[in-house]
Amino acid sequence: MRIILLGPPGAGKGTQARILMDERGLVQLSTGDMLRAAVASGSDVGKKADTVMKAGGLVSDDIVIGVVEERLGQPDITNGVIFDGFPRTTAQAEALDKLLAEKGEDLDAVISIEVDDNAMVDRVAGRYTCAKCGEGYHDAEKKPAVDGVCDKCGSTEFKRRKDDNAETVRARLEEYHRETAPLIAYYGGKGKLRQVAGMGSINDVTSEIRQVLDAVG
Ligand code: ADP
Ligand code: ADP
Ligand code: ZN
Fold it and tell me: Residue 201 burial by CB count (10 A; 0-12/13-18/19+): exposed, middle or buried?
């Protein structure tokens, strides 16, 4: 199964992708995570991406498509993949169509998580993750059961992204509307689009996505 989670920063793409990964044996392909790893490693790709990401812009299509193409060639992508944060431009969507067609594959569904833009600044500003296992948390919406201890792995170390501040979020939301929101019509035209309400609780959103997956899978 190959699905895309589409939505602005803070919509819950990463949160839902991790839940589905555990439940359905799919691999989460997050271009944001892959680019952050490239930045941390100091590679050429990382150097080019770093400044753009700090400013809340979009990394060039060539770089991102290259990173995805390489990832899709790796052997763990057998049961399927959840694209999280990719594609973000029409050029990326077209490149993905081509990459999949070459393998004789197709997308099963593009799930657009519909949220209220104004709420996304608080979602993103309150976001943090476990430094060890990557589990996502939120200052108000999703705290660990025991204060300061990761529910999943017991680690006491957490981290926040440098670009998760109110100013950069606004730039990212603008990029979303300019470059990424047109993909809703792109996939709508191909009959792939499924819209889910993203302002409910994390569990409610998961239930809606499960229904979509059960219907297409
Ligand atoms: P995205 O990957 O789309 O940028 P995340 O999954 O990282 O978004 O979620 C952003 C923040 O909002 C995280 O701190 C997460 O815990 C929280 N969050 C995710 N989904 C919900 C929801 N349905 N209701 C409230 N908070 C949520
Ligand atoms: P969020 O879900 O909060 O928007 P991501 O982790 O998906 O954040 O992305 C963080 C940053 O990485 C983006 O603001 C952008 O600079 C870069 N990035 C991630 N995915 C892409 C992509 N598909 N195309 C271009 N830039 C990307
Ligand atoms: Zn953890």
Answer: exposed
